[in-house]
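@channel sequence for tomorrow's demo:
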Amino acid sequence: MKHTSGLSITLAALGVLSGCAILEPRAKEDLSEGYALLYDLASKEKQSSLLSIIKTMSPELKSLLERISETSKATAKELETLVRIDPTRNLKVTNLPRIEQAARDSIDKETSKELLQSKGVDLEFHMLSSQLPAMNYAAHLARSLAVVETNPRRKEFLQRTDRKFSDLHGQVYKMLFTRYQR
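C-alpha cells (generated this afternoon):
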C-alpha cells in the first residue's frame, strides 16, 4: 500500500515536471507575442496627439492625448531596449489569426475615418471613446505579461506600464463621463 502511494507521488511529480517542460517553449512564445502586441499598441498610440495638429479640440483633451502619446512613446522605446538586451524577443510578430488581424485593421480604419470626419463635440467623444478600450487593453496586456514574466527587470517594467496605462484609462474615463454624462 505504501509502495503504491510512493509510486503515485513519483508519477505525479514526473507528470508535473514533464508538463512544465512541454509548456515552457509555448510560454516563451506567448511572452514574445504579448510583447509584440504591447509594442504594436504603443506604436499606434504614440501618434495620438498628432490629430490635435489638424483638428481643433479642447486644451484638456489635447493635454490628455499628449500624455497618452508620451507614455506610449516611452513604452515603445523601453520595449525596443529590452529586445536589444534579449534578442529572443520579436516585437514584430504577433501571430494573430488572419481574421483577428482583419477585424483589428477594420476597426482602425473605421475609427480613423470617424475621427477625420468629425469635429467639435463629436470629435472629442469619438477620440475619448476610442482611447478608453485602448488604454484598458494596454494596462491588462502589461499586467498579464507581468504575471508570467520571470525576469525581475522586465516584470517591474510591465507592472509600471500597467499602472501608467491604468491611470490614463482612468483619466479618459473621467473626461468621457464628466463631459458626456446624460
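heads up for whoever presents: The first helix runs from residue 2 to 45.
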